[in-house]
Amino acid sequence: MTIRFVTSNAGKVREAREYLTDDVEQIQYDYTEIQSDDLADIAVAGAKEAFEETGGEDPVLVDDAGLFVEALGGFPGPYSAYVEDTVGVERVWNLAEMEDNRRARFRCVVAYYDGETAETFDGAVPGRIVAPRGDGGFGYDPIFEHEGATMAEMSTERKNAISHRGRALAKFADWLAEN
């Protein structure tokens, strides 16, 4: 069975192939991202739309992810990409540095849809918000520290080994093997 991963990010597809024994095909389709405070709602809506718009033959995967800063009430959460583009990572750090509690989580929800069944699988990586460091990664990686290193300081292999997306994909792979 081929699973179509709806993303423009080839790195996400490589990561998915590490967890899934089935063929993973990258599909670039710009689905409508609904406005919701719930990553699962966003991912499922995207998966259903992408399934229909790409022919409705093979199951699809869509993921949605975000950075959830505890002291900021979970902000930016599901709005992380928009906040990164409009406010910027540095300003998110500036907001967090004013707080005593800098705990945060990277969260990801992977949604699977095959035309009948919609299932979601979540993964999270705990950490804390710190002053920007490191040259690797993208997005919020320079300000998110996990076990003493920011994601931007980690190699791709180390980052993928602990990633929120990887944790969600591992749960999906287990479910897929049983079903």
UniProtKB/TrEMBL annotation:
MF-aspect GO terms: dITP diphosphatase activity; ITP diphosphatase activity; metal ion binding; nucleotide binding; ribonucleoside triphosphate phosphatase activity; XTP diphosphatase activity
Active site (catalytic residues): D64
Note accompanying the cofactor annotation: Binds 1 Mg(2+) ion per subunit.
Role summary: Pyrophosphatase that catalyzes the hydrolysis of nucleoside triphosphates to their monophosphate derivatives, with a high preference for the non-canonical purine nucleotides XTP (xanthosine triphosphate), dITP (deoxyinosine triphosphate) and ITP. Seems to function as a house-cleaning enzyme that removes non-canonical purine nucleotides from the nucleotide pool, thus preventing their incorporation into DNA/RNA and avoiding chromosomal lesions.
Domain of life (superkingdom): Archaea
Protein name: dITP/XTP pyrophosphatase
Catalytic activity: ITP + H2O = IMP + diphosphate + H(+); dITP + H2O = dIMP + diphosphate + H(+); XTP + H2O = XMP + diphosphate + H(+)
Subunit structure: Homodimer.
Top EC group: hydrolase
Gene Ontology terms: biological process: nucleotide metabolic process; purine nucleoside triphosphate catabolic process
Binding, substrate: T7, S8, N9, A10, G11, K12, A65, F138, G139, Y140, D141, K159, H164, R165
Keyword RNA-binding recorded: no
Native organism: Halorussus limi
